[in-house]
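This follows on from our talk about sequence and fold. Can you supply me with one protein entry, sequence and fold together? Could you add the entry underneath, on a fresh line?
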Amino acid sequence: MREARLWEALGGGKVQCRLCNHFCRIDDGDRGRCGVRENQAGTLLTLVYDRVAAANLDPVEKKPLYHFHPGTQTFSFGTPGCNFSCSFCQNASLSQPPRGGGRIAGHPATPESLLAAALECGAASISYTYSEPTVFFELVQDTARLARERGLKNILVSNGFMSRFCLDELAGLVDAANIDLKAFTEEFYRDRCGGKLAPVLENLSRIRSLGWWLEVTTLLIPGLNDSDGELRDIAGFIARELGPDTPWHVSRFHPQYKLQDLPPTPLASLERAAAAGNAAGLRYVYVGNVPGNEHGHTFCPACGQVVIRRLGFAVTGLEVKDGRCARCGEAIAGVGLG
């Protein structure tokens, strides 16, 4: 354990965490809603600075990032804990136990050891992912600083519920982010995630203004966030507020955690979402968790040529030259293309 960052003393032994938009007020001896920040005698401590519970070398496409140095490998890691309680969480065994007071698992790690592992693997970047990187902010910040010094890129895969103070601290360190936009109603965020929609929308716009490369993911859950109206609202927000070049990944739901009674997302619903994205003017809409579908390729928005061909998460063809379609010369949005 070590002292956390982004908190303030309130007096009487209480503290307020300023890391995410819960802004938890924590009594002495208690933890915040994430389960990994604890008030000990009026000092807020992080319990996961040196507790990495998952680490792998992944294709950057798996994050998913389809327009950020495609075809490269990223060293990915995460700790236990999350500031959300999503009933459909796909990594619940990692993210949720600390919230209920469970053991904080993981292996000892330091920013130096994580950087060394990334360099040894030949990774082009480090991704802070698997659980919610906001709750292991201190480890993210220190590792990202080292990575930047050694020429590696930094990627954040997040629910987007961090505070403005957290974003400000990471502003000059992160190069790209994939942010979940889980739905477009406050009810969904309150009842299904234990959070709020408005701060996520504000942070998406803020991230765009910071200059990070941004892609957005929505896990489409049958009957919960897949109505035509909600799909139009999400697509319209992305096109209007983030720009039509922002890639939108519509991902297939599989029964997980507390929603095992629901069926997987029908392909027809994913097609409706893709159509809503196209109708809103989004130039790059992808369908995820459906092997072999045509929506996994990147098409030139001008001539329709496949400019980045994929098989699963593997790039199998790249028809981009100096960031432009090799066929017609149209600019293809992204970083490190071609």
The mean pLDDT is 96. The helical segments are 92-95, 111-121, 137-149, 164-170, 186-193, 198-210, 228-242, 267-279.
